[in-house]
Amino acid sequence: MLVEREASATHKICGEFLSAETQGYLRRLGLDLGALGGHVISHLRLVRQKTIVETALPFNALGLSRYRLDEALLNHASRSGALLWRGQRASVSDIRGPVIDVDVQSAGTIRTNTLFLATGKHDLRELRRHPETPPEDLVGFKMHFDVDSAQRDALANHIELVLFAHGYAGLQRVEDGRVNLCLLAEGSWLKACGGSWEGLLEELLRTCPHLQRRLSNAVPLLSQPLTIYRVPYGFVYNPPANSADNIYRLGDQVGVIPSFSGDGMGIALHSGVVAATHYLAGSGAGNYHRQIRHDIASQIWRAGLLYRASRWAPGQRLFMGWAGLTPRSLSLAASLTRVPPSAVTRAMGLMS
């Protein structure tokens, strides 16, 4: 049984970057990615002020909106035999013992012996994450744009990571020629810009010539930007000794990688595969959580180092200088912030 809060497809705040292992998992599940129309991304541009460093990625990625991908996954789950309930809010009323009580909006209480928790960055009240350090005062925004043909061509096959004084932004094409802008900014800077998306975007375009060029004639394609606040980047779930052995945390509920790495969906799919194999083997959620922590903790730690370096001006200058001297080091950084190949190979083998 799959309980989905939204009644129909919705946009999600996400960089919408499908790495090689993400694509591999989706294809192994039986999804036809070609039919979904994702945009091939083969190169990375790192931008700070007027300095641009470009390099080939160590893999071909895809730019594909969560709107299209999530709908395809839900339909695929339904065709594969899952009972899909859409437009239903759920909460957990009792997690003690071998039976879990789940309260579903229109169906009342459902009793189950296993729960896979896949609520993304949003916690259920009864099963909150407890990060070791409090989330930073950061606000995330996402908007799709229709840009002019010259800028759309300039973005072809590239993802651009733009560093600025109070955060960073990712810019890439997705399906149908859309361009996704996803950015993370300090809450204090947002407040200084008037506390609004319009004020923040105006200031960003005024102070960042690269984004000004890309978006000067752009038309927003969403009625309003998507936002998120205080995401616990760097979080990796460490189950307490008394944790339930029948609740499996997936995706951002088990580990939150800094968004610029572009591997959040890779971690989500990897965790789902590993959780399913542990469940089918009868080894329990405790063993699963130890395994997934082993698989992703180093990856998230390395991404955190790069993330912290990108947050302050001296670090940005060093980062850009290092990248300018050895552009291929960016490709290495991209490789080091993926789910480890050995873990992917093992999980793929279990799927077979």
UniProtKB/TrEMBL annotation:
SUPFAM superfamilies: FAD/NAD(P)-binding domain. It comes from the Bacteria. This is Dehydrogenase (Flavoprotein). It comes from Marinobacter subterrani.
